[in-house]
Amino acid sequence: MKSINRQAGISFIVMLVLVGLFGYAIYIGIKLAPVYMEYFSIKSSIDSLADEMKTRNINKNQAKSLLSKRLDANYIRFEELKPSRDACDISKKDIFQFKRTKKDIVIGISYEKRVPMVANVDALLNFEHVKSVPIKQ
After folding, report:
1. Mean pLDDT, residues 72-89 taken together
2. Strand partners, 106
């Protein structure tokens, strides 16, 4: 009787497909990582501005100037950020949000980044971070 040999393991083609998928996932990670690092830098700048606003009385222009200086220190140009089209609370012209109510001051930022991926395919990322600062009575 002849014994039938069964294949064990994966074929070369399946291995190439898996390497291609992992390579593409790494490529996407490399393209998107700087954008997310920029967002976390902006988020920490907003948070530190909110902490400073707890001790000082700051108007909108001063807050925007302070935020711009913090972003410049992290090599982020405030003018290069594009307003998010999905921003419902703020004006479409400005990415910076500053609202003063009776109880608190709301500061935040809402912007979008477009990252070219492959050929005519882009990744569109929307970022928003809002921080509320209670007003001292």
Report:
1. 76
2. 99, 132
pLDDT band at 90 (very low <50, low <70, confident <90, very high): very low
Say how many C-beta atoms besides its own lie within 10 A of residue 77's C-beta: 9
According to DSSP, the β-strands at 96-100 and 121-134 are unpaired
Indicate the domain borders of the chain: 12-134
Cα separation of 73 and 48, whole Å? 13
pTM score:
0.78
Residue 129 to residue 51: CA distance in whole angstroms: 15
Identity of the amino acid at 121: V
First to last CA, the chain: 94
**pLDDT digits over 4-47, tens only?**
777 667 788 999 999 999 999 999 999 999 999 999 999 999 99
Rg (CA), the chain: 24
Helix or strand run (H / E) with residue 16: helix 12-53
Check if the beta carbon of residue 67 is closer than 8 Å to that of residue 96: yes
DSSP helix/strand/coil, 57: coil
